[in-house]
Design brief:
The chain has 149 residues and is of the alpha+beta class. Helices cover 21% and strands 23% of the residues. The strands form four sheets. A three-stranded antiparallel β-sheet has the order 1-5-8, with helices on one face. 30% of the residues are buried. Keywords: Aminopeptidase, Hydrolase, Metal-binding, Protease.
Length: 149
Amino acid sequence: MLGYHGDTSKTFLCGNVTDGLKRLVRVTEECMERGIACCKDGASFKKIGKRISEHAEKFGFGVVERFVGHGVGTVFHSEPVILHHRNDKSGHMVEGQTFTIEPILTIGSTECITWSDNWTTVTADGFPAAQFEHTILITRTGAEVLTKY
């Protein structure tokens, strides 16, 4: 479709990687999948953050709160704002809505610092982080992933 946006990301492992980093990347992708699994028409947005936080915490990882999912359509960043951590945000999903789920998990601090290029962002303590993202379409019975890789 012309004039519509999609948004996706995936963390890749390169070289010799520790089991701890492999676990971080695997759990981050699982968190995204768990967030997607709770989406359907009428579901509360806060369920996404609850599911992601519960799974991340089981493995001792933190969820970065600074970055959020967002609506996607003819405008790239729009409503709704999707929080990936536990929250009390009101609102419910509506059939036909499109938005991203894009949790960022970290081994250490969930605080971030943006470099002078105004784009590159790292954890405040320099510890590794991972991110996965899909754009989804809300249906009556669930969510359709629009950005399968």
